[in-house]
Amino acid sequence: MASATTGYGGAGGNGGHSYGGNAGDFNVSNNMSGSLTNGAGIISASQNTGINALTQIGVTVQANLTVQ
């Protein structure tokens, strides 16, 4: 059976903040200015500020032309 010994343990280190401290700034601003002006034809635009987000755009065009 293990026996108890008398002595003093080492001093612990300083603890962190109770609310987690400061992890820095995280800016999720995402803007497009002037990118859709004066556009001609078929325009598709997508924005997403999510982390590990995936954006998919599918465009299908059927053009029937009559040439004279």
Q: What does this entry look like structurally?
A:
The chain is 0% helix and 0% strand. The chain has no helix or strand.
Short description:
It contains no helices and no strands.
Radius of gyration: 31 Å
The outline comes out as rod-shaped
Structural class: little secondary structure
Mean pLDDT over the full residue set: 74
Task: Report the sheet-strand fraction.
Answer: under 5%
Low-confidence segments, ≥5 residues, pLDDT <50? none
Q: How many β-strand runs?
A: 0
Give the % helix.
Answer: under 10%
**Main sheet summary:** none
Q: Could you state the oligomeric state of the chains shown?
A: single chain
How many DSSP helices? Answer: 0
Tell me the span between the first and last alpha carbons: 104 Å
Q: What order do the helices and strands come in, and which of them pair?
A:
Blueprint: no helix or strand
